[in-house]
């Protein structure tokens, strides 16, 4: 498909990677940013987008979104979720390897790429499995996975069988300059837990997951990162102490990054106090203090990315007694708005908030997107910061209606989303 | 939300799911009505026609003899039709969902479910999904709540010690962490303004932030029992030895077992309770279990009257019937 020349005029450009926060025009040609500010010589736009009164930012990079495809298409499909992402200003979705079958062979990577290619919406990038079938025991063919396009390796939420296997996996990944994406969890400590171990788990008689399940794992992982020299990323930290441990490691020069999922910045253990399965998360929602610690980590950059940790489910998955329900929330539809809300509530500057969903995650994935400098890929989100909407689970674009934010008032509505210089979402055309 | 779920717009009991979320008047009303039924159960004709024509299903996903039997007797003494359904939790996992099971039973025009399940929150879940005329009684959900047990314990304490709980010191001894009975007792005793409430156990059996429930924590049995008016011993499950919660039953008994000698630090007229079944020689010795301070068998008897009270209060009127009682 030919890529049109596009002129985006009058918008307020926020591009944290390039330090831009001003009203200016963007010119796009050949799927890339041709100019910022003044038009290049002889530029004639095929499409003119009037962004007066709107914000123009890089398309969002969601560091973790389960698409449930292949394997669990009753929950969601690549098609449904990539469209939902486009409608929410997300241009890149990073899919963890726990699909069915697991992303442990180039064939599965290819299948996902093929399916994503059939949808004119957000692009999909993948993480490969660290161990075969995520079994925690046998290394996957990491080199082949890298060649197939995987941006890193992860064992998703599955534990590794031993510290020795973790060490070998780190060494092997480091051989191919692959980043390891880690879920910090000590499986013996988290065991059958479904809620933070604290006053709510005690009151409700639910098995708790102690803070130490995360911090013990971070301590162990950091020691092995130091030993092996692998580049590592901690996924979805939930505790203040773990954030401080990672900050210390970064200060000491270890090649580590970390992220947080956005529900953990708004919710805490108390939200689950009526057995409401919309608040069943793994890792669990923690305390108010942890929530504050996560915001601090996001502000000072210890946490370089903010992701949706999108986990769409069919209704039945949440219709059971709390411990028997499936954890996780659908999050694609609310990622941008909840990010803007952080700025609106002055928890973060708008610039920092946007950085954590654009250039931050792009850097972690080593992707050439998430910024709008000349020559960059034209992945763009244009939104109206003044428009508000109310979350209504039934009208979410994602196939997963399992949101803990049902009824919340949200700032920010996407008008246009562009990927590779083409319009993949236009609200007026809906 | 749980308060709304359990209490109807008229302020009456809608479901009976947990003590938490109820109020003192309602607990007192349950105890008063149980008192009136206690008279019935002591007569030679032990039936009242209050729930004639109504259908109660005992839906037990977890094995139980005592609780299920007393629920069944209570329902029969209220003249209800009773159906006992025991579903092995593991086969339930393979087959239909809990909600499907529920819908099928509802289609048989059931009026009340008495539910026991190993997952905390099951009774709340069912109560949220039943039809408006169906009520739910929690007969134990995971480690969360066992509210009828707590009410029969309150009934027992009131009979033994009188209605003024404010002058009582109560000690609950044993596996607080895994006990739904303890959680419900703690809420009930605090709602009834108990003077002092203690829990006594090693740290492995005390759940995180238990003080937030309104108890004082003791690790030393003698200190925990000093001047107690009521001692409630909890059952110790054998699994606790496997999960590294305790080294052995012997050591537990040596440190936390209730013996006649240890009882001496409590008030002279101390009442000793246990929800049953007792592990003799683990939680307490036979001398105490069968001794003059023990009301363990009375607890079982009172369980019937208490459950009659809760069932009659929570039963919803049929569409063409005014609500009774």
How would you portray this structure in words?
In chain A, α4 packs across α7 (212-228) and α7 (212-228) runs parallel beside α8. By secondary structure, chain A is of the alpha/beta class. Chain A has helices at 78-87, 106-117, 142-148, 163-175, 187-190, 199-204, 212-228, 240-251, 263-266, 288-300, 335-344, 350-355, 359-365, and strands at 6-9, 12-15, 20-23, 26-29, 32-36, 47-50, 55-58, 60-62, 90-95, 123-126, 128-129, 152-154, 179-183, 195-196, 208-209, 232-235, 256-261, 305-307, 380-390, 409-419, 422-426. The radius of gyration of chain A is 21 Å and the shape is globular. Chain A has one domain: Metal-dependent hydrolases (TIM Barrel), CATH 3.20.20. In chain B, α2 (24-42) crosses α7, α2 (24-42) packs across α14 and α7 (147-161) crosses α14. Chain B is globular, with a radius of gyration of 20 Å. Chain B has 325 residues and is α/β, with parallel strands linked by helices. Classes of the chains: A alpha/beta (430), B alpha/beta (325). The A-B interface holds A 197-199, 201-206, 208, 210, 274-276, 316, 319-324 and B 1-2, 20, 97-99, 117, 119-122, 124-125, 129, 141-145, 180, 183, 207-210, 212-213.
């Amino acid at each position: 498909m030919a890529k049109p020349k596009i002129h985006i005029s009058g918008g307020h450009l926020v591009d944290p990677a390039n330090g831009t926060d001003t009203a200016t025009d963007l010119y796009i040609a050949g799927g890339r940013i041709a100019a910022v500010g003044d038009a290049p010589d002889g530029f004639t736009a095929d499409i003119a987008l009037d962004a007066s009164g709107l914000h123009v930012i890089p398309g969002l990079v969601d560091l973790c979104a389960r698409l449930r495809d292949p394997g669990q298409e009753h929950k969601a499909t690549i098609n449904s979720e990539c469209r939902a992402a486009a409608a929410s200003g997300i241009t890149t979705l990073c899919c963890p390897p726990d699909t069915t079958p697991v992303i442990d062979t180039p064939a599965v990577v290819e299948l996902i790429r093929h399916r994503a290619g059939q949808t004119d919406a957000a692009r999909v990038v993948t993480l490969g499995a660290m161990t075969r079938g995520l079994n925690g025991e046998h290394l996957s063919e990491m080199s082949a996975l890298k060649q197939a396009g995987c941006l890193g390796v992860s064992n998703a939420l599955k534990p590794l069988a031993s510290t020795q296997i973790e060490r070998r996996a780190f060494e092997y990944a480091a051989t191919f300059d692959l980043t390891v994406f880690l879920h910090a969890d000590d499986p013996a400590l988290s065991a059958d837990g479904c809620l933070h171990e604290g006053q709510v788990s005690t009151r409700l008689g639910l098995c708790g997951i102690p803070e130490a399940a995360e911090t013990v794992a971070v301590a162990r992982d950091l020691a092995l990162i130091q030993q092996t020299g692998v580049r590592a990323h901690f996924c979805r930290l939930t505790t203040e102490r773990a954030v401080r441990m990672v900050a210390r490691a970064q200060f000491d020069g270890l090649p580590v990054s970390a992220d947080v999922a956005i529900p953990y910045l708004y919710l805490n253990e108390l939200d689950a106090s009526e057995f409401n399965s919309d608040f069943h998360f793994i890792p669990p929602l923690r305390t108010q203090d942890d929530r504050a610690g996560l915001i601090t980590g996001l502000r000072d950059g210890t946490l370089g990315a903010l992701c949706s940790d999108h986990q769409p489910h069919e209704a039945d998955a949440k219709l059971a007694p709390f411990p028997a329900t499936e954890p996780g929330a659908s999050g694609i539809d609310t990622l941008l708005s909840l990010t803007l809300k952080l700025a609106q509530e002055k928890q973060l500057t708008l610039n920092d908030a946007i950085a954590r969903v654009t250039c931050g995650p792009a850097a972690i994935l080593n992707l050439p997107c998430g910024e709008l400098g000349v020559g960059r890929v034209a992945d763009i989100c244009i939104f109206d910061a003044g428009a508000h909407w109310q979350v209504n689970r039934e009208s979410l674009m994602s196939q997963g209606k399992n949101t803990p934010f049902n009824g919340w008032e949200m700032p920010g509505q996407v008008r246009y989303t562009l990927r590779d210089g083409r319009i993949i979402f236009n609200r007026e055309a809906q | 939300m749980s308060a709304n779920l359990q209490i109807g717009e008229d302020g009456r009991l809608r479901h009976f799911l947990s003590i938490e979320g109820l109020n003192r008047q309602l607990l007192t009303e349950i105890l008063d009505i149980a008192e009136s039924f206690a008279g019935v159960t002591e007569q030679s004709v032990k039936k009242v026609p209050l729930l004639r024509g109504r259908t109660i299903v005992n839906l037990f996903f977890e094995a139980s003899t005592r609780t299920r039997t007393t629920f069944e007797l209570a329902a029969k003494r209220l003249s209800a039709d009773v159906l006992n359904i025991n579903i092995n939790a593991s086969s339930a996992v393979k087959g239909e969902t809990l909600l499907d099971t529920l819908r099928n039973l509802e289609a048989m025009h059931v009026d009340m479910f008495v539910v026991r399940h190993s997952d905390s929150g099951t009774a709340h879940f069912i109560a949220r999904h039943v039809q408006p005329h169906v009520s739910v009684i929690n007969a134990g959900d995971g480690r969360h709540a066992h509210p009828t047990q707590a009410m029969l314990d309150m009934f027992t304490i009131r009979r033994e010690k009188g209605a003024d709980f404010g002058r009582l010191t109560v000690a609950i001894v044993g596996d607080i962490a895994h006990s739904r009975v303890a959680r419900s007792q703690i809420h009930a005793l605090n709602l009834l303004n108990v003077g002092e409430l203690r829990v006594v156990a090693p740290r492995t059996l005390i759940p995180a932030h238990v003080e937030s429930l309104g108890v004082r924590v003791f690790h030393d049995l003698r200190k925990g029992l000093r001047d107690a008016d009521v001692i409630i011993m909890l059952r110790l499950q054998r699994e606790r030895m496997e999960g590294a919660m305790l080294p052995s039953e012997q050591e537990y008994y040596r440190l936390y077992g209730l013996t006649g000698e240890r009882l001496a630090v409590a008030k002279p007229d101390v009442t000793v309770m246990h929800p049953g079944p007792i592990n003799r020689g683990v939680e307490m010795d036979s001398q105490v279990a069968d001794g003059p301070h023990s009301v363990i068998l009375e607890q079982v008897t009172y369980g019937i009257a208490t459950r009659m009270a809760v069932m009659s209060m929570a039963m919803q009127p049929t569409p063409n019937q005014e609500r009774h009682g």
